[in-house]
Amino acid sequence: MSNSPKFVIDGLKATIENKEILKGINLEIKGGEVHAIMGPNGTGKSTLASAIMGHPKYEVTEGTATLNGVDLLEMEVDERARAGVFLAMQYPSEITGVTNADFLRSAINAKREEGDEISLIKFIRKMEGKMGELEMNPEFMHRYLNEGFSGGEKKRNEILQMAMLDPSVVILDEVDSGLDIDALKIVADGVNNMRSEERGFLIITHYQRLLDYITPDFVHVMMQGRIVKSGGPELAERLESEGYDWIKEELGIEDETVGQEEEEFKMPMNTVAPEFK
Amino acid sequence: MAKKMPEMEEYQYGFRDEHKAIFQTGKGLTAEIVTEISRQKNEPQWMLDFRLKSLAQFEKMPMPKWGGDMDELNFDDIQYYVKPSEKQGKTWEEVPSEIKETFDKLGIPEAEQKFLAGVSAQYESEVVYHSMQKELEDQGVIFMDTDTALKEHPEIFKEHFATVIPPADNKFAALNSAVWSGGSFIYVPKGVKCEVPLQAYFRINSENMGQFERTLIIADEGSFVHYVEGCTAPVYSTNSLHSAVVEIICKKDSRVRYTTIQNWAPNIYNLVTKRAVAEENATMEWVDGNIGSKLTMKYPAVVLKGEGAKGNVLSIAVAGKGQHQDAGAKMTHLAPNTTSTIVSKSISKHGGKVTYRGLTSFGRNSEGSKANIQCDTLILDNESTSDTIPYNEVKNDNITLEHEATVSKVSEDQLFYLMSRGLTESEATQMIVMGFIEPFTKELPMEYAVEMNRLIKFEMEGSIG
User: Fold this and answer.
1) Is the reported ipTM for this assembly greater than 0.90?
2) Stated pTM of the model
3) How many other C-beta atoms are found inside a 10 Å radius of the C-beta of residue B449?
């Protein structure tokens, strides 16, 4: 029981450059549960992920986020990570000159007490094993962190880090974007292998596709910076076949986005072109 | 849990010892002082004449109007020659005990045992300790301090001395030529390859000291040598001057690598002239790390004189508070099919200033030659600055010249990414900085790479918060 985490977000509001993006998010994730947050682009999904992890761009103005009763929002980013939160990012940074292996070993040791560092042999065995499961070429161990990786390779590398760091709350931010169907299956397997009573998942996705391979326990729809509808896996299936319009109609929402001009500018140029209406 | 960072200090090697010199000239520079230095060293007449001529040259030449700010450098306030001991030790027991303790603290005897083929330790103006492995001696390798070489190998000395850098080259070369003392002399015979590095360590101990070592390396045909130098000094409120001249002659098919890890205290003016001549198919490599000093002006040069000669400069410069690193490289392509590569990595923080200043020139006969220049700068905060000033001179149409320059900051997203995996802000910054200089550290012998990483970590600890 003590190993099963409880992650609670209560009334979370966050702004970017004084523009409110999250308008009160409530969510409770227990060990063993997989929650999916779905929604069209620009509704605040990725902001939620970044705000929980503590990206300096976002300012939390109200609400709390606790893990096993401990306030995460008071912590620095690295302290949140060491407390057990992991965010697989939509756009992982590239760090030149630092190998994947050196980086991961430092990250693992950051969680451990001084004098209790993981031995090199143990580390390499573990990393090789996990890379094998994710069908990653062994050379990625000694490549510079994310440098020159394709979109799919970066996502696999995020899942590798998740598997190595053994977190208790995992947030996957659009981990399916840019993946072909084979890579998607591998990533989904990686996540499914990690499902346990000791871990809760929050999967942020734009498409239903990923949820064909990772069956969620709960599905939430986000619009205008709020969770507007929650349900079970059947909600994701209905969204897949009917889209989001029926929810908008039901709730009388015309524009589901929040802080949209900002978001368009934040899109890296080489991924998704901004929408012009 | 977060690891505790070691306590922050300003400069790690800033301690001094209480050793009393056996002779010193006192402050200021005159013909009498120059004559006295030469007399103390018992030099031949030609060297005294050379010194006096160089002094006249120094007095005649104006201060450079470019580069760093030298307003606070007062030539009358410098002590030009300090003799620490009567004779040079061949074992550490023969070295005066305070001086030996200093070198012990710097880890030199330990390093010598572990991974060096020869060691020279200069303290103030003179080399106080010197040794070399017997195997190298048997192969005819000469490695000794420059003063001794003048006495023991007068022909080869006179043939090459001041041929690469004449006294009139620049004001500081003239100064060094007038008051030079110590430094290393290396001769590697034809075909001899020294697989293990030779090292010299330079230590300034007194206040207002001027250190003017003079190094001359001659690599005969088909030979190889790797020479490493390190430098430190105590921290004083007044300024000291380090103004070395390093001349290297790489004969046909030879290769010389010269590695410097300069970590002077932040009150040292480091104004050094380094130049090599590379003959046919010879390779000269400068690996140059500049971490300390108040102002460094240093542009290691290679004159590519023979067909197919190669020159490389790989340098890093780190400038912190009140520091200016004005560093770069000079490549002179005089023969056909010569190639040169310059990779410069600079880091500025806490208001420090880094300048890359480089000259690449192609003479009329440089047909088919190539040069590649890459300058990358990492700026750690908004107070710090960086400039890139490349000069190119091209007198031949059939050459290739490439120049790339990047300036970057440690980005918020990179820090967030690394911290989201559990690294503290300071660990994350260090990791980004280490990655940035990785092309440099990977060229160092393992032990130095470890030391370099340690130094950089140490430098970076004060950078956050």
Assistant:
1) yes
2) 0.83
3) 15
